[in-house]
Amino acid sequence: MKKLSKIRIKATSQKLLLGLLILFTCQLVSAADVYWANPVDGNWNVGANWSTGTVPGINDNAFIDLDGTYSLTINSNITVNSLTMGGLLARNHWPLRVVHSF
Q1: Could you report the per-residue pLDDT of 12-36, keeping only the tens digit for each?
Q2: Strand order in the sheet with 33-35
Q3: pLDDT, tens digit (0-9, with 9 covering 90-100), for 41-68
Q4: Over the stretch 56-101, which tens digit does the pLDDT of each residue have?
Q5: CA dist., res. 41 & res. 53, Å (int)
Q6: Residues 32 and 19: beta-carbon distance below 8 Å
Q7: pTM: predicted TM-score of the whole model, two decimal places
């Protein structure tokens, strides 16, 4: 009887650990809304330029809606869940200029 109890406790502990691991992993891959926070020129890949202090990742929603005139430099491939442009650009229908250099 003692051996059976130990097996049940061990199996329950393993299920609990697996459940916590799944929960923790789901928290890590959840999408965040990340806003451009630099009102002057800046680089996409600098975490300090973003509201969360980190560069938006594949599961994140990136928002560039800060009013002002500034250049945002992207010097690598990026992948985000969504990209929303706003601020004065959207309200005044100003053109968006994308420059790609090789």
Answers
A1: 666 666 666 666 555 555 789 999 9
A2: 33-35, 61-64, 82-85
A3: 899 999 999 999 999 999 999 999 888 7
A4: 999 999 999 888 788 888 888 889 998 888 765 555 555 555 655 5
A5: 16
A6: no
A7: 0.61
Can you read off the two tokens belonging to residue 51? 């509201």
* Owner of token pair 């009887």: 1
33 forms beta bridges with: 61
* Residue bearing tokens 């706003």: 86
Query: Which residue type sits at 26?
Result: C
96, 70 Cβ separation under 8 angstroms: no
Token duo for residue 5: 């109890």
Q: Tell me, letter by letter, the H, E, C secondary structure of the chain.
A: CHHHHHHHHHHHHHHHHHHHHHHHHHHHCCCCEEEECCCCCEECCCHHHECCCCCCCCCCEEEECCCCCCCEECCCCCCCCEEEECCHHHHCCCCCCCCCCC
